[in-house]
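Dataset card, provenance and construction

Sequences and ligand SMILES were collected as paired inputs. For each pair, a complete structure of the chain with the small molecule in place was predicted and serialized as structure tokens. The example below shows a pair involving magnesium ion. Curators did not alter the output after generation; any descriptive sentences attached to a record were derived from the structure itself.
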Amino acid sequence: MSREKIITGIDIGSTKITTVVASVSDNKVSVIGVSGNIPSKGINKGNVVDIDSSVEAISQSIEKAERMAGVSISNAFVTLNGSHIENLNSHGVVAVSPNETSEITKEDVSRVIEAAQAVSLPSTREIVHVIPRDFVVNSQEGIKDPVGMSGVRLEVETNVIHGSATAMKNIAKCVNKVAIDVDELVYAGLASAEAVLTDTEKELGTLLVDIGGGTTSVVAFLDGSPIHSAVLPIGGKLITSDLAIGLRSRLEDAEKIKIRLSNEALISKTDIHDDGEDFDVSEFDLEVERIPRIMLYKIVNARLEEIFRLIALEVTRSGLSGKLPAGVVITGGAAMTAGTEKSAKVNLKMPVRIGVPKGVTGLIDEIKGPDSSSAVGAVLYGAKLFRGSNLLSFDNKNGSIRKGASKILSKLKSLLP
Ligand SMILES: Nc1ncnc2c1ncn2[C@@H]1O[C@H](COP(=O)(O)OP(=O)(O)OP(=O)(O)O)[C@@H](O)[C@H]1O
Ligand SMILES: [Mg+2]
């Protein structure tokens, strides 16, 4: 019999909160409630800076999604973002417990991942994800799922994503304040990757870049799983503020001008749309009524170039240059900025595509754009866990996220490449 469960994802972004409620079965994720476009207050560059304002925005977003879905939400997968997010690759080794068949069991796998998790992190840091990349059984490498194999020595290579314990507690606290339990905090970049990347891209080697309002979250995939993650404290808001300075306009007007410029380029199906005509800004209270388009593009492009150069630096720093043949997939709201694709190609010197969320059906009109990737990804992440094993509910009422062997076991199946 087909199982079914309601799974909710909440993306707490620097510009907006998005809630996606879906009915998940073994072969389908059907969206039944959505609320995007609730401006986030109290979130800066991915971090909670004002609890009350954040709680108010989260509460509005949840209420709207609940009304649409006709269900009451009690728990959710919640995204975590911010430049406090870091990662390391860790190795674990255990002796396989002796049993009649000398086969590796789920418990052995759970123990080896626990062993890999024993990294020395300062008390200010907490582990967000422990992702098994590769198992080694009796020195044989490249094993994706060792359960049932014979062996005496089991090793694992993992990618551990960790973050500031305070930042994590604050996000959990805001969500708990609206009477929602956090199933799990999910790194926003990883959530976007779930929604946007294909299995082939993950396998070949690709870089997922989510450019939001206040952050740019990066995850590199190689051989099917994440190998490097980083969050840069830059995003679309900087493009808007550059335009506001250049045009001596209000931020709100600069934002409207940026979006109109980008939409024009999108409609004309060119990366930038310059027909030689000036851009009409008469509806805004500026010193001029018309501006040469090229001037707007120059301002936007300077910032895009900076963003992609910093990403290129991150790729080099992590030793991944030349190892990501499937190129770069750009998502997040700012991926819609005119000139993004071209600037990414020029500065990263890799193949580039703009990624939008996939893998869900139902009421998806509001969440088709690249600005919904993290929210859709949070639900897909939850769906993977649900299909891998039963969802566990975590005791984080006090803002602490419980970790345990059982949780690792449940994650393991779902995250295996
Ligand atoms: N059509 C568009 N053209 C250009 N930029 C756009 C467009 N729509 C949204 N943006 C920009 O996308 C950014 C917001 O993206 P997104 O919604 O992904 O951010 P967020 O998730 O709230 O923030 P973060 O991920 O940084 O915490 C804003 O800077 C906004 O100006
Ligand atoms: Mg975001």
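Derived descriptions for this record:
The chain is about 35% helix and 30% strand.
Confidence is low (pLDDT under 50) at residues 389-417.
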